Amino acid sequence: MPTAPAASAAARVPAAERAYDLTKELIIGGRLPGGSLISEGEIAERTSLSRTPVREAFLRLQAEGLLQLFPKRGAVVVPVGPGEAEDVLELREALESSAVRRIARRAGPLTDLVNRLSGLIDVQREHAGRADVAGFAEADEAFHHAIVAASGNDLAERFYGTLRDRQRRMAVQLLQPQPGRLAPLIGEHTLLVERIADRDDAGFAGALRAHLDAHRGATGL
């Protein structure tokens, strides 16, 4: 049961924003996979809101390419298309490889970065132990984002942030049918950290390409 301050804070969030956040999380987290039909009434009931703010949220999600609206029928969750998936993976590979090239040239120890990334791998390991695909996907995104952020290129970090939702959704879509893939991913992430610690940007680029190829070969991507 939420505390009074928490409940008060939630009440200050605009109704349309609450409906948007919930619906988007259901889509990104894989609880509403591509092709799912959802109605304004379902979200209104979940959030204890009227349909008007839910309609606003649905329009916003349609503009983002996550929903397709059908008047008087509801909305369908737009699947991740093969073209979109490849575009995201291509951009991720370019941004992360470029980030590590810059990191490798940096003077001074990389201990803090290596420790931060290793800590995120520990979080992934905890999620993997519980077969928590959604939690793992969120930690996976944080791991890769941390690499780009560590480069110090603010423009690259901001742009990478725009891929966050797509990246997490793709990871959930890939991993939900095969949760046994979580443990090998931890090994792949560990190798990426080792390459960073060695300032081996070429080795990192090769390991990252192999890591992302698992996504490229996933069914439906």
How is this fold's topology laid out?
Elements: H1 4-12, H2 15-28, E1 37-38, H3 40-47, H4 51-63, E2 67-70, E3 74-77, H5 82-104, H6 111-129, H7 133-150, H8 154-161, H9 164-175, H10 182-197, H11 201-216
Describe the model.
The protein has 221 residues and is mostly helical. It has two domains: 4-77, Winged helix-like DNA-binding domain superfamily/Winged helix DNA-binding domain (Arc Repressor Mutant, subunit A); 82-216, GntR ligand-binding domain-like (Four Helix Bundle (Hemerythrin (Met), subunit A), Up-down Bundle). It has helices at residues 4-12, 15-28, 40-47, 51-63, 82-104, 111-129, 133-150, 154-161, 164-175, 182-197, 201-216, and strands spanning 37-38, 67-70, 74-77. Strands 1-3-2 form a three-stranded antiparallel sheet. A hairpin with a 3-residue loop joins β2 (67-70) and β3 (74-77). It is elongated, with a radius of gyration of 19 Å.
Kindly report the average pLDDT value: 90
Total discrete domains: 2
State Rg: 19 Å
Q: Percent helix among the residues?
A: over 70%
The fourth-level CATH homologous superfamily of the largest domain is GntR ligand-binding domain-like
CATH class of the largest domain: Mainly Alpha
State the CATH architecture of the largest domain: Up-down Bundle
Largest sheet: 3 strands, antiparallel
**Ranges with pLDDT <50 over ≥5 residues?**
none
Number of helices: 11
Describe the strand arrangement of the main beta sheet, using strand numbers. Answer: 1-3-2
Written as H for each helix and E for each strand, in order along the chain, the element string is HHEHHEEHHHHHHH
Terminal CA distance reads 40 Å
Number of DSSP strands? 3
Q: Assign the CATH topology of the largest domain.
A: Four Helix Bundle (Hemerythrin (Met), subunit A)
